[in-house]
Amino acid sequence: MIRVLGIETSCDETAASVVALDDAGSARILSSPVLSQIEEHAAFGGVVPEIAARAHVEALDGLVEAAIADSGTKLSDLDAIAVTAGPGLVGGLIVGLMTAKAIAAASGKPLIAINHLEGHALTPRLTDGLEFPYLLLLVSGGHTQIVLVRGVGDYRRWATTIDDALGEAFDKTAKMLGLPYPGGPNVEKAAKAGNPGRFAFPRPMKGEPRPDFSFSGLKTAVRQAATAISPLSDQDVADICASFQEAVTDVLADRVGKALERFTAEFLEVSARILVVAGGVAANEQIRSMLQGLCRENGFGFVAPPLDLCTDNAAMIAWAGIERLRAGLVEDNAMGFAPRSRW
Ligand code: KG4
Ligand code: ZN
């Protein structure tokens, strides 16, 4: 049995979790409290780093205590402390890393520094027992990437955004239209009553040979459409949201389709081809059903971990710690590890 405490403070969720892997190889999340700071940031229309860091300081000790208490284990039962050491907002990373180091030092347990993206990348092995290799589409407020996951610690980034993240594009669109933060769910809701064909927004990067994403041109087009109409009626807002969502879904289909083709060409011997989606934008129904269809057409299985494990949480960090322990990929000098905000 391996039991690891995970700590996550890289953005606006404070989270702690205990995950166990038994000798038969089955994994269980014993506890995973998450405290979202959405309300603290909502008035500012986005995450304010100073507010986030302070909120992590206030919440983290209590969350760690709750995670251990709820798990039915004791600190002395744990095999290691895993913590997000980057990338993310440096204030939050410092809070998480210092806390984890203090717990590790006091308990004599090893510390494992985890890259937040590795946490997202390995989650489908916790939830669905996936085998390597598989493709991961990570679409959140901070990241828009297509990653080839080949093994623990063995990741190849096939595509990334050259400007805004997709979640950020949703959030900015919402802000321009006067919809509350976080924008994604509100844009999706408004889009349901809108006409996706009313605005012919650009599809940045669609059809380009390079595999990456770009959303800033689309954001500009949304701003122009929104400022050209005054005052904006509810129907205008709904139509802009629907047209925006249509444009991003179209771009994603093109970019992800290209990656599926590349995977198929490069891994001829792999019979179970899988695309995994993670990140908050994975909650979007239109995007989800497009991905499902795209996978079906290309002979891929589609895996979407439960939403609370798609968005930021500490179970994925604890799990990445377990994976690293099992693979023997634990740094000797993790106590000297400094936060890497751009890791
Ligand atoms: O993974 P996540 O919870 O946190 C980080 O980015 O760290 O992702 C949050 C992002 C936000 O930008 C939010 O607007 C977006 O995910 N999001 C959505 C939806 N729900 C959340 N975007 C589109 N449609 C949604 N239903
Ligand atoms: Zn994340």
Automatic annotation (TrEMBL):
GO CC field: cytoplasm
One Pfam entry name: TsaD
GO biological process: tRNA threonylcarbamoyladenosine modification
Co-factor remark: Binds 1 Fe(2+) ion per subunit.
CDD domains on file: ASKHA_NBD_TsaD_bac
Catalytic reaction(s) noted: L-threonylcarbamoyladenylate + adenosine(37) in tRNA = N(6)-L-threonylcarbamoyladenosine(37) in tRNA + AMP + H(+)
Source domain of life: Bacteria
Residues reported to bind Fe cation: H116, H120, D312
Subcellular localization: Cytoplasm
UniProt entry keywords in alphabetical sequence: Acyltransferase, Cytoplasm, Iron, Metal-binding, Transferase, tRNA processing
Major localisation: cytoplasm
Ligand binding (substrate): L138, V139, S140, G141, G142, D171, G184, E188, N284
Domain Gcp-like as annotated: residue spans: 29-319
EC annotation from Swiss-Prot or TrEMBL: 2.3.1.234
UniProt keyword Iron present: yes
An annotated Gene Ontology molecular function: tRNA N(6)-L-threonylcarbamoyladenine synthase activity
PANTHER family: TRNA N6-ADENOSINE THREONYLCARBAMOYLTRANSFERASE, TRNA N6-ADENOSINE THREONYLCARBAMOYLTRANSFERASE, MITOCHONDRIAL
Function: Required for the formation of a threonylcarbamoyl group on adenosine at position 37 (t(6)A37) in tRNAs that read codons beginning with adenine. Is involved in the transfer of the threonylcarbamoyl moiety of threonylcarbamoyl-AMP (TC-AMP) to the N6 group of A37, together with TsaE and TsaB. TsaD likely plays a direct catalytic role in this reaction.
Family named by the database record: Belongs to the KAE1 / TsaD family.
Record-given protein name: tRNA N6-adenosine threonylcarbamoyltransferase
Source lineage: Bacteria, Pseudomonadati, Pseudomonadota, Alphaproteobacteria, Hyphomicrobiales
